[in-house]
Specification:
heterotetramer, A: 317 residues, Rossmann fold, five-stranded parallel sheet, 43% helix, B: 343 residues, 2 domains, five-stranded mixed sheet, 14 strands, globular, binds thiamine diphosphate, binds magnesium ion, DH_E1 (chains A, D), PDH_E1_Alpha_Subunit (chains A, D), THDP-binding (chains A, D), Thiamine pyrophosphate-dependent dehydrogenase E1 component subunit alpha (chains A, D)
Chain lengths: 317, 343, 343, 317
């Protein structure tokens, strides 16, 4: 992996992290209200995966924890922040909020706040690709807890049976909200479930953007070659609460510290240093992103609120 | 747009003709569901379409979430999926995909995306059918903004409304009825312009009271209306075939003339769409000469035995009794007979 | 039966107290759902119960069909499960288990089996919540014979109604509201006899019109009623806290006195339970001085931004306007403002 | 296996078959109306399984194709026939009909007409057993097509995670209604899906009541020992249509003949003959059952219809 790629990934991950940190501040100041799910610690997944996709035709279907996906897909932080702030300039004009915005112009076909519901929809996107000649690959991303939801099961079998080009990407952060997922399954190696559907299943380090990129690129290739769906399991940890305000009393002592030591930005910076990148350069890179997101926040905060007179638009055609 | 020709078709054949036309004229249509392709449907409704249209018509696993989700997703990407949920009762294993997914696509994306999908399903009781295969669930669908719902009853409507649904850019639920599929053949106009969504069907003109109904129940309503006519009660019968959007104006125009309103549906009375019709009418301020009446299934589960189900669902006598009651303002009848506990 | 004592509790604490009493007094109760046990619930409502009652309280996978099916099955075998569906919106991924399973158990077995289960859920909009976490879905549950539905709003009701539901031998849906959980503490009578299912709460006596409402919306209704009082309109406010069975007699008694009816709920107007209330009242033949009015959410999806959602849901001004309209028979208002397409 | 056991199984299988044949005749004569799903060809599954269960405490949860389960559990043919005929003496008083009757007094806790819905309910029955000291094992039976339904997936994970004593018994007759199930999955060896949940999975000849008995007995033992759920896959064929009137045009030439040659009653009779049982004895055994079911049919047909005045009973407590 080249140093350029490493720094490019680092920049995307910083952009995600800084956006999340900004959202967190704006949530605590109550400029943003309501339930917000941050993805701190999971940035390498989005960053690596998007590098392997062709967003001109491929389609990503994330969950409520989707800010990072949006940024990795290229949605400007301002459009994300404005969305959470209920501005007209929000990526969904304030209709979606933190947990349900969509950015089809960027290949990001919607967060989904119903656990697992995006998986069958991604199958539909892949199905459409069979007829529109696009060669589209659909990537449905969800947490490991979603693996116990019926809709995900149906989607996996459907995709496998129909040899649809779908990548099921499990972001295994080991928690289903406040419950350790290993407590509600017998076998928490979720990639092994792939064989039930006759799919390939692969587990890898989800904190390493290159490992993610490689796994997704392999899966994309299989999909484009008509070999059908793939189940990917990216091992990671969230280093924040499930929602803002979650004090994480459920995490065993030391777990969070270990997760913070292994988190993808720190990891990437270590690798960059090992590859000879200087602290100054790394600090400058980060500062550039901090400034960018800061400007985005200012712009979002000063944008006009979405207009209540428009709430009845777009219900029907 | 094919020229209009008249064919003599059963209800099932009318549905098939509409599907065939849609698949023919609109290459973006897909047709899928359990047993719909190679077997031609458990009721034979989709016969021949796989052979004619190849892999745009396909069979699925028994996975309603995948079917409906596959419809939502493919519709977001330019396809126009028509999916079958074999019984409306089965939609409940995957209701999320309709209410929380399909209904939101256009709204949240502010029109950048759409979900022009059609769900064909069928519902209601048939002889011997159990409680899990007998419900009339249109009220559940009709409560959801973003969704369109229709219930074709005539063979012509089976053709017309389905095409309107498929042509519509909104997620639309077409609720058919298996007891109608293989009934009498009738002349059906095939071809011609596809009608916009909405509107009622006037099934019988009359001046004494307005009976609003929909679904297979209207055959009983029409029979009861004829018997009432013999007694000198002249009932107007309106088929509110589009449940959402409901064509209130047409209903109001009739009620304004008759001053009396009866709603008859096969669904359970409590929380049924009849309540919506009655409420809209009385909210309008129109003067009623006697209180409106609703007739629907009794507030019980639907038993399998024919004679039991016949007691639960509105029968000819019940409907005739209600017509008399509304026409003559008789303060008694089936609605009051509900046990208090079941309300 | 524990002695009655009064405690000062929040809504969440009142729910917790009811659960604690049920688990204490009735060894056949079980409590399970996502995050309810060791974490104590995502809203902290079930805190401490796992510690107190051990493995009768447990966490589940994110599997609503398994949760509800597990409730149906264990209830059939003598347990009295209390399960949590975190948001009413999520019930739609497993609605089958309520409508097609729980509702039928007693009927099909002619009482040999029963499904005395309680589903605790919560619903409605809260600041910033998206369309998939904001719906008010009581109409979907209330349409189903065999199911009981209640919506406690006061802290006392949060305690009382939940106990009635748990004690009831029928499958009962208790719809709470997360915006109420951590509101003001109030004196709550704990202990004493568990009340039978059913009945309304009279929240304000008045003589000019009857406002029927339920759920968190009634706080706005009460505020609007006070403002109306300042204008000389004396509204009676009835909390129809049991949606099924609906206590029609109490509502009718009030409407008989006031001659005017307004229904206010957070759910969408079309097909909402308001339609049932209006229909029952007008079917009764009671004389109304002005047409009844319903106020509910506009016929749109619920947007996340606070100022947008505020426009969609009935606000204080909307309610006050409707009170004025019903009281003075003003022929204008929000209901007519619905775009025709959305009806 | 003793000759007694063989003949006992044969008798049960005859009882099921004769009841189904009687139902078929009554359906064709329109004494019975509506959709009826017969289990001809699958009788060994019910017969073998029930031998391994203790119906005093165990609980069976079949599907709409449940007449055979009921008979094997000991429900008198008359009560089944009367149910389908809408008689007051029907096992559910005409409330359930062919597809949804229940016989809790016999350990048969209800057919279910929603594909897959019985699986989570069986988990609940097993869960109750954890608290009532019964040692109950719950057996959920369903077709292989149901394996693609979300509720079944959720049930399997739930049972495995909670180590519940549930036997998931797949009656693999290779068809989902009119569609070959292999066409809607990638891997039609369903027992292999067990590993996704950390369960044991076993496939066996579902036309051999002893193989079924052995497999279920093993599973019961695992369950009672607290080892948790088991997935069993009984290979079989239905030798009748999915419903009465189904002409089975979808079956490839020869398949039905092969299925008929392998069907459990013919098979058991072959074995009995090989073990020295004479044709006369076999014919007498069958005739005894034919007469028994015939009497049952007469009794059912002359019983009074269920009373419409009772339709509103038992909706609520
Ligand atoms: C059908 C459904 N059930 C429950 C929830 C509530 N819920 C939201 S997030 C979540 C946990 C999801 O865990 P996981 O899939 O591992 O994703 P993570 O949040 O860890 O990214 C739950 C239970 C929901 N949104 N939808
Ligand atoms: C949720 C649901 N979807 C669809 C159906 C319609 N249906 C009834 S039986 C059946 C086929 C089931 O196949 P399988 O599970 O293999 O069982 P078999 O009928 O072969 O015994 C289908 C699709 C249903 N009853 N419930
Ligand atoms: Mg997780
Ligand atoms: Mg099968």
């Amino acid at each position: 992996m080249s140093q350029d790629t490493l720094l490019a990934s680092l920049e995307v991950m910083h952009r995600i992290r800084e956006t999340e940190e900004t959202i967190s501040r704006l949530r605590l100041s109550e400029d943003i209200v309501g339930s917000v799910h941050l993805c701190n610690g999971q940035e390498a997944i989005y960053t690596g995966a998007v590098r392997a996709l062709d967003l001109g035709r491929d389609a990503v279907f994330p969950t409520y924890r989707g800010h990072g996906w949006a940024i990795a897909c290229g949605v400007p932080p301002e459009a994300v922040l404005a969305e959470l702030l209920g501005r007209a300039s929000g990526i969904s004009g304030g209709r979606g909020g933190s947990a349900y915005f969509t950015a089809p112009g960027y290949g990001m076909y919607g967060e989904n706040s119903i656990v697992g519901a995006g998986a069958p929809i991604a199958c539909g996107a892949a199905l459409a690709g069979r007829f529109d000649g696009s060669g589209r690959v659909a990537l449905a991303s969800f947490g490991e807890g979603a693996m116990n939801q019926g809709a995900v099961h149906e989607a996996m079998n459907f995709a496998a049976a129909m040899t649809l080009p779908v990548i099921f990407l499990v972001e295994n952060n080991t928690y289903s909200e406040l419950t350790p997922t290993r407590d509600v399954v017998r076998n928490d190696q979720f990639f092994r479930r792939a064989s039930a559907y006759g799919m390939a299943g692969v587990r890898f380090d989800g904190n390493d953007p290159d490992a993610v990129r490689d796994a997704v690129a392999d899966a994309v290739e299989r999909c484009r070659n008509g070999a059908g769906p793939v189940l990917l399991e990216a091992m990671t940890q969230r280093i924040v609460g499930h929602y803002i305000g979650d004090v994480q009393h459920y995490r065993p002592a030391g777990e969070l510290d270990a997760a913070i030591a292994a988190e993808p930005i720190a990891r990437a910076e270590r690798m960059a240093r090992a590859a000879g990148v200087g602290d100054t350069e790394l600090a400058a890179l980060r500062q550039r992103v901090v400034d960018e997101v800061d400007r985005a926040a200012q712009a979002a905060l000063s944008a006009p609120l979405a207009d209540p007179a428009t709430v009845e638009e777009h219900v029907y055609a | 747009m094919p020229e209009i020709i008249e064919k003599t078709l059963s209800y099932a054949e009318s549905v098939n003709a509409a599907l065939s036309r849609a698949l023919e004229e609109r290459p973006e249509t897909l047709l899928f569901g359990e047993d719909v392709a190679i077997p031609g449907g458990v009721f034979g409704v989709t016969k021949g379409l796989r052979r004619k249209f190849g892999e745009r018509v396909f069979d699925t696993p028994i996975s309603e979430s995948a079917i409906l989700g596959g419809a939502v997703g493919s519709a977001m990407f330019g396809r126009r999926p028509i999916v079958e949920i074999m019984w409306a009762d089965f939609a409940l294993v995957a209701f999320d995909q309709i209410v929380n997914q399909a209904a939101n696509v256009r709204y949240v994306s502010r029109g950048a995306l759409a979900a022009p999908l059609t769900v064909r399903t069928q519902q209601g009781n048939a002889p011997g059918a159990c409680a899990q295969h007998s419900q009339s669930l249109e009220a559940l669908f009709a409560h959801i903004p973003g969704i369109r719902v229709c219930m074709p009853t005539t063979n012509q409507d089976a053709y017309d409304l389905l095409l309107s649904a498929i042509w519509s850019d909104d997620p639309t639920i077409v609720i058919e009825n298996r007891t109608l599929y293989h009934g009498a053949k009738q002349p059906v106009r095939i071809g011609g312009p596809v009608q916009a969504v909405g509107g009622v069907g006037l099934r019988r003109s009359g001046s004494d009271l307005t009976v609003v109904t929909w679904g297979a129940m209207q055959h009983r309503v029409l029979a009861a209306a004829e018997r009432a006519a013999a007694e000198g009660i002249d009932a107007e019968v309106i088929d509110a075939r589009w449940i959402r959007p409901l064509d209130l104006d047409s209903i109001l125009a009739s009620v304004q003339r008759t001053g009396r309103l009866l709603v008859v549906h096969e669904a359970h009375t409590t929380g049924g769409v009849g309540a919506e019709v009655v409420s809209r009418v009385v909210e309008s301020g129109v003067q009623l000469t006697s209180p409106p009446v609703r007739i629907g299934a009794l507030e019980t589960r639907i038993p399998a035995a024919v004679q039991l189900a016949a007691r639960v669902l509105p029968g000819d006598e019940d409907i005739l009794g209600a017509i008399r009651r509304v026409a003559h303002d008789v303060p008694a009848g089936r609605v009051e007979a509900m046990p208090a506990g079941a309300r």
